[in-house]
Amino acid sequence: MSSFEDRLVKVIKDSGLSQKEFAKKVGVTEQGLGNYLNGRYPKVDVLIRMKQMFNFSIDWMLTGLEAKPVEADLYILEIQKELIEYLKEENAELKKELGTKDSGSCAEPFNSEKLKKTNH
User: Fold this and answer.
1) Fewer CB in 10 Å around end: N or C, the chain?
2) Neighbouring residues of 60: CB distance < 8 A, sequence distance ≥ 6
3) Following DSSP, what letter does each residue of the chain receive, concatenated?
């Protein structure tokens, strides 16, 4: 099993950034990143920032027991985005159809002036 330091090196390498760029992006000094690479654990807020920016599981980073990245979660998020986009398009289509179709009183907007004239 790999160590925390090994997993951090992998995340840095996978990011395509230099250690200096990586440190700056997550908001730590180069010395701080060096400490993490030598076995010290980052504070929780730094670990969370790393996770959010570079998409890995904190469980995986700390223990090595979960696959990196969390591909199932990414897949589900992608499907959700596609579904939301599809539903938005369908909703727009339905609104367009209802707005242009003459399907009786349901499609016509309420007109109180017209109602007053017919009741007098």
Assistant:
1) C
2) 7, 66, 67, 68
3) ---HHHHHHHHHHHHT--HHHHHHHHT--HHHHHHHHTTPPPPHHHHHHHHHHHT--HHHHHHS-S-SS-HHHHHHHHHHHHHHHHHHHHHHHHHHHHHH---STTTSPP-HHHHHHHH-
One domain for residues 56 and 76: no
How many angstroms separate the Cα of 42 from the Cα of each of 66, 86, 105, 116?
19, 41, 64, 72
Cβ 61 vs Cβ 8: under 8 Å: yes
Confidence of residue 105 (pLDDT cuts 50, 70, 90): very low
Question: pTM for the complete prediction?
Answer: 0.54
Containing structural domain, residue 26: 4-63
Contact call for residues 23 and 34 (beta carbons, < 8 A): no
Does residue 31 sit in the same domain as residue 50?
A: yes
Q: How many domains would you assign to the chain?
A: 2
pLDDT for res 34: 96
